[in-house]
Structure formats: C-alpha cells, structure tokens
Design brief:
Length: 183
C-alpha cells in the first residue's frame, strides 16, 4: 500500500488519474470504439429494416422530415403532409434528432435505409466516445476506454437502440429482449 506522499499529484495537490497497463492514445481509442460500434450494429447488416415495436415508423418520420427539408424548412416541427394535408405537429411529440439526422443524410443523397443504419452506427460510436471523453480526466485513458466499451455493450444500450418494445408478450418476440436478430 502506498503512502499519500508517494502518490503523484497535480498542481492543485489532488491525486492524478490512474494509468492503466499502458496509456491508450486517443487515436487508438477511436479505432477500438469504432470497430466495437460496428460489431454492436451487426444486426443492421441484413437487408431491410429490423424488427422493433415501431416497425417502420422511424423511417416514415425521417421521410416526412426529408420532404419538409426539401421544401426549405431546415428544422421542421410541423409536418405538412400529415392528416391528409392538414398537417401535424409531429416533432413536438416525438424527439426529432434521429429523424432529422436521417433526413439530412438522405438530403445529401444517401439512400434512406442506409442513412438510418449509418445514423444508428454513428450514435453508438458517439455514445462510446462520449463516455471515453467523460471518464478520461477522472480515470485515465485506459480505464476510460474500458468505460466506453462497457457503455457500448450495456444491455440497455442495445435494447433501447434497436429493439425497444420487444417484450415477451409481443407476438414478434421469441425471447423477450434478448433478440437483436429478426423475430
């Protein structure tokens, strides 16, 4: 056990963050988190959309947002095509971030399903990278990388992101929340 005098401290006198077996450079953390994010998103490689409680509604919302963006409304809250052309304040009730990211990518020429799948991958990566960046000053770079990896593989992250709503009572679910594959 080390005494308090032998522990390295920073300028304010507080102990410095712990270092892992080797200090992990940021570029290595980015590469590892990107590869593991891709591994988390392997169910998205299948053709078509994956089974979830919302079916294709996220894609329909993104397509509606795309049409509004194409008409010049860069941050749509009101979808003019809803309710037989009378409109609906869709993004006042549904969080718009996912739909807008997919719609912007689609406006840049990326096919709609590919844009949705790339957005999901990007959000997985950003979540892991954000966890790494948050934990690095507190824990050091190697433990922060482990925190980012644990975030990526937390069961709630995969369940919420891809299959939210599949429960044992759902007729499409065979194994409760454990099925990332098609039911």
């Amino acid at each position: 056990m080390q005494s308090d005098e032998s522990m390295p401290t920073n300028q304010s006198g507080r102990p410095t963050a712990a270092q892992g077996p080797a200090s992990c450079p940021a570029w290595m953390a980015v590469g590892i988190l990107a590869l593991l994010s891709a591994a988390c998103c392997t169910p998205l490689v299948d053709a078509g959309w994956f089974a979830s409680h919302e079916e294709i509604r996220p894609i329909a919302r993104a397509l509606a947002a795309y049409h509004e963006i194409a008409d010049g409304d860069l941050y749509p809250r009101w979808i003019s095509t809803g309710y037989l052309g009378k409109g609906v304040p869709l993004f006042n009730f549904y969080p718009p971030a996912f739909s807008l990211l997919v719609a912007y990518a689609h406006a840049l020429g990326v096919p709609l399903l590919l844009a949705a799948k790339l957005t999901i991958f990007l959000l997985f990566f950003v979540g892991g990278w954000g966890t790494y960046l948050w934990a690095r000053p507190h824990l050091g770079s190697f433990p922060a990388l482990v925190a980012g990896i644990l975030y990526l593989y937390a069961p709630s992250t995969s369940w919420i992101s891809t299959c939210a709503g599949q429960r044992p009572s759902s007729p499409r679910s065979r194994s409760g929340t454990a099925g990332l594959a098609r039911a």
